[in-house]
## 1
Amino acid sequence: MKKRKYTLYAWVFVILGAGVLNGCTKEKAEAIKVTVEQFRIEAIAAINQLKNIVKQSIEMPAQDENKLIDDLEQEDTIDYDKIKLLLAERDIGAAEADVIDEKMQELEGQYNLFASMFNSLPKGSFFAAKAVERAQKHAINLTVQLINFAQQIKENKIAVKANAKRILLVGQINQNKSIQDPVLRRQHLKNAAQSLRELYEEESRIKNMAIIQCLKAAETGRQVAQMIRDYKSLTVGEVLTLSQQSLGLVSEISDQSAYIEPLLKKYQAIETTIKSDPYWKNLLDEKIIQ
Amino acid sequence: MDNDAKMLEAMGDAVTRLQIKYRASSISDRMTMKPDLEKLTRDYVDFQLKLIQEGVITTDADLEEMEDIRREIDNAARTQEIVQAIARTIAFIAKRFI
């Protein structure tokens, strides 16, 4: 009787043990899932910034009401086609904005799909090691994409231009220049010069923040790829440390406006580290855009 | 600045210049200019998105594989639940009846 009991216990042990040896503990799986979710959140934030940048580059300022009154006054007659134009003018750029949204949703979908792969991992941690291994390639591709986007912004292949503000500024300066009183004109032009400087600073800030966000997301992606690569060999403690590091990146960037320059330097250093890591270097040499 | 960046800047400047001209024009002139403005804006956005696409590595085949991996991990979760249930049953039997 005792022998049969031990045999049954042995079977239970063998079934669970086989799973544990092949897979990982639930804690490790949970930590990976959390880091992957963090990667998804950071990547989507980066894509949102790209989306806003592209939309801003074509944005026109809303038409001034006084200008509309002047226009109506100037026209000899107003027919239906003119009214139709005035009504349709509000939608200029709307079709292009939809195209931009569609493209960015497609990109977001890649990161959402990647994160969704790990939803059941904690419940299937014993038997999912092989599947997790296959996910490594995709973690790498999605990470390299973010480095590419940062690179494109740096090289002005993604245009950072607060277009509507630029257009308003042109109008403002020309209006100021037409003021007859020299003292008043100078005062207004001084304000315009201030607006010009503010616009330069705003566009620089948008550009730097987008680079930072892409690199921050890439760093989280690198950690995910490392966790996947060393899924079997990492201890629970090591996985938790990596997971905490990725969460730490989020909290440190909360006060972004005050620390933009140091942050940019920090993330550019991370980018350099990724690019000089022998493992990543080979992958990047093959996949990064030139 | 490489050629793509130069081209993008030139196209963006052309869009902005035409927008400024458009805003300053009369209703009649705007009727003539609107199709050109829309075409130029569309070309500019298309070029911008083409450049962004050059940085994208993930292919449709990759997306299919990711779907496949998701199914595999979901299946692993189901298998694990069954195995754990069997193990619990065996342990219960062993404890109670043997």
## 2
Amino acid sequence: MAFVTIEGLTKSFGDNEILKGIDLEVERGDVVSIIGPSGSGKTTILRSLNVLERADGGHIEVDGRVICSDRGKAKIQFASKKELRSIREGLGMVFQRFNLFPHMTALENIVEAPMAVKGVSRTVAEKTARELLESVGLSHRADHYPAQMSGGQQQRVAIARALAMEPSIMLFDEVTSAVDPELAGEILLVMKRLAEQGMTMLVVTHEMGFAADISDRVLFIDHGKVVEQGSAAQVLSNPQHERTKAFLHAVLERAPMDAPADADDTHWPANDDAAHIAAAAHHSDEAKLEALQTEVARLRAELDATRQQSDSAQESGV
Amino acid sequence: MDVQFFLDVFPEILEGLQMTLSLFLWTMLFSTLLGLVLALMRLSPITPLRWFSAVYGWLLRGIPLLLLLFYVFFALPEFGDFFTFSPFRSAVVGLTLWTASYQSEAIRSGIISVDKGQSEASDALAMTKSHQMRKIILPQSVRIIAPPFTGNAINALKQTSLATVITVSEMTGITRGIIAGSFQTVEPLLALALIYLALTTVLVFAQSGLERVFRLKT
């Protein structure tokens, strides 16, 4: 039995059928990226998993615990509120718009849920929170309010906040889309290191180069269905389906031909006291990524250029 | 205008200040609590609670406070001893029921002004709904609630003057007594007006102070 099992997931908003029967399995330690055009239902899959959206039909199970199911029933049934809260403790979610608590400092944001939900003492919670802040390179921002931080910093705090609950899987919902392109790298670096530490991750993203880097598997979703899935190399450089080809082609076509910087040039802002962590992360990357890098090198250069452009296009509301 | 008479009646009227303030403070305490309950009912997923709150607001905001005070003081005792209150308590009950309908609107609009992402993030972190409300939603809505809240407070303060009609001896009642005994109106009414103005001015300053505090923090 897979760690995460999603079967026949359906969801409509009014007459708009967003998900038309999604099947997805994620093994423990897997990093699975979900790509696809806007409105294809990528985000809804993540939100259905922790019941921020209530699915219309299908079966979702995480670590053997049923979140919702319509197996052998006329109508889908959800776990009780209490069971659901207990399951959610194990599901870390990071949002496109950070959703940090604006009236709390970075540290308070991180300790709130462990103390309230898991009954962790303040001393222990703060110790963990400071370690987490250090691991995302933000020790010096512990007492800052969200409004005093850049988007990239806020998102890293949001990741630390989710990690403080010690989740067994992390859900990333377009976490770089609301961030200035030059700040996306610092978020992606944190995620890459998490993936390397063996965190199970489900990543909805527009960052094709990044998806190619970290994913064990890539799913291409269109019109509420999984069109194609496989290794990053298979899906991104050798797509089999017309719609995948068309999507990737469209993404590539908008890219300028003189490709700019490589995505690996991610670095902390100069004032960050954890620059050494970044350097260390770079180092351990090399061996692991080498094989994949040669495989998708040519495509990556083009995709990275695309990323920057699609980010800025997205920012202007396209 | 008789300045000496004005100076004489001023402290006399001030003797009612304590009663006015205690009407006001009890009313604010109870009406804020009741208003919070009504606001939460209004936002509840449970339909009968939503209806109750909506009907309450429609009813209490649709009748004059004077009528409500008469009702609590004169009509309610007909339903038994349990509903028979002293003049002071009748006034607090009437003022509370009436002010709560406005407080509930103020609090409700504050709660719904908080971004939906805040409750989603709290849900995702497995917080209970009541914890979310106390620690995440309400603290953020205070900034939105403060201006209409102060408006309601100012209204409640001024409306305590109506308690005089059910024989509560607060500032307005004392003033009426002075007028009846002296047949002079200009001085006592001026004194009364100045005291109310001073009190409402304090509330206005309290509001802007409060707003500055919350602006600094977020």
